[in-house]
Amino acid sequence: MTSAELDAHPLCQVARALTWGALALLAYGVLAWAAAQPWFALTTLEVKTPVAHVTEAQIRLVAERQISGTFFTVDLERVRASLEKLPWVREARVARRWPDTLDVSLVEHVPLARWNDDALVSDAGEVFVAAAAGKLPRLAGPEDAVAEVVDAYRRHQAALAPLGVRIDELRLSPRRAWRMRLDNGTQLALGRAETDARLARFVALYPRLFGAPAAAGGAAVPVLPATVDLRYPDGFALRMPDGRAPAAFAPAPREKTRPT
Q1: 3-state secondary structure (DSSP) of residue 90
Q2: Are 113 and 136 within 8 A, CB to CB?
Q3: Domain ranges of the chain
Q4: Which of 55, 136, 137, 211 lies in disulfide reach of 247, CB 3.0 to 4.6 Å?
Q5: Separation between Cα atoms, residue 236 and residue 209, nearest integer Å
Q6: pLDDT 10s digit of each residue in the chain, 260 long?
Q7: Distance CA 163, CA 152 (A)
Q8: 196: closest CA among 137, 227, 154?
Q9: What CATH number does domain 38-108 carry, 3.30.310.50, 3.20.20.70, 3.10.20.310, 3.10.20.580?
Q10: Which residues pair with 167 in a beta bridge?
Q11: How far apart are the C-alpha atoms of 36 and 69, rounded to whole Å?
């Protein structure tokens, strides 16, 4: 039998395939063994982005618990998922950097307001649970109405900007009725329909009705409404503190005369 015939023989072809397969398995085993050796241990974790709320201690704790293996065998997806479980982390990226470093990039939530009783909502409209010490407006509503409440908050805050007041609280009831409290203490009942138009009417009349009457011998003292009910087709109802009248209806101060 010639060498060409030998090469074409089925048994020779099987033997050749087995030989190459064995060599491939051997090479894989050698590479896997080398990759698991302490020569390629990860010794450094570097955070590449500035963070405001996530602490280095939290990141290190995740690293100690979740980073296992070497430069070649570490499970990057597992590390990323663990970092994204930290309260303030919106998104995490993890990458290897030769020879012994993991680079971590974090995107944090930017808080917009408190949401209901136990959460925060970010400027991207995402609800997350974290501790926030600063003063934030409070938004409340059904859990499936986050986007609607956030959008209404932004619209209404822009409408109120000319008055120099801010929304302290905005609530959407289960019956889809809106109520608002401003940072000056005034409460607004907006109702369920035409809320933008009702608020625009209030803003347009606010300076005339609630302007600051001059205080004798001192600075102007504004008389602000305690409650404003905007749920009327052509106007709104007021409840003033201590029964006082709005500035537009307050009697003009009398001029003082010298005794003769």
Answers
A1: strand
A2: yes
A3: 38-108, 111-249
A4: 211
A5: 12
A6: 555 554 555 655 655 666 656 556 655 454 444 444 454 588 888 999 999 999 888 988 887 788 888 888 899 999 999 999 999 999 999 999 999 899 999 999 999 999 998 999 999 999 999 999 889 999 999 999 999 999 999 999 999 999 999 999 999 999 999 999 999 999 999 999 999 999 999 999 888 887 744 444 445 556 677 899 999 988 888 888 776 666 555 544 444 434 33
A7: 18
A8: 154
A9: 3.10.20.310
A10: 182
A11: 7
Task: Report CA torsion sign: 240, 177, 145, 117.
Answer: positive
How buried is residue 133: exposed, middle or buried, by Cβ count under 10 Å (0-12/13-18/19+)? exposed
Architecture of domain 111-249: 3-Layer(aba) Sandwich (3.40)
The token duo for 31 is 């590479």
Q: Name residue 100's amino acid.
A: D
With contact defined as beta carbons under 8 Å apart, do 96 and 120 qualify?
Answer: no
With tokens 């029964």, the residue in question is 243
Could you please report the per-residue DSSP string of 154-187? HHHHHHHGGGT--EEEEEE-TT--EEEEETTS-E
CA-based max dimension of the chain: 147
